[in-house]
Amino acid sequence: MASLICGSIAYDTIMNFEGKFADQILPEQIHILNVAFLVPTMRREFGGCAGNIAYNLKLLGGDPIIMATVGGDVAPYLDRLQKLKIDASHIRLIEQAFTAQAMITTDQANNQITAFHPGAMNESHLNLVSKVLAERAQNAKDKVKFGIVAPDGRQGMWEHCHQLAEAGIPFVFDPGQGLPMFNGTELLELIDLATYLAVNDYEGEMLSQRTGLNLSKVAERVEALIVTKGAEGADIYSHGKCIAIPSVPATKLIDPTGCGDAFRGGLLFGLENGLDWEITGRLASLMGSIKITHQGPQNHQMSKEEIAAQFKTAFGFAF
Question: Which domain holds residue 63?
Answer without folding.
Answer: 2-9+48-95+127-315
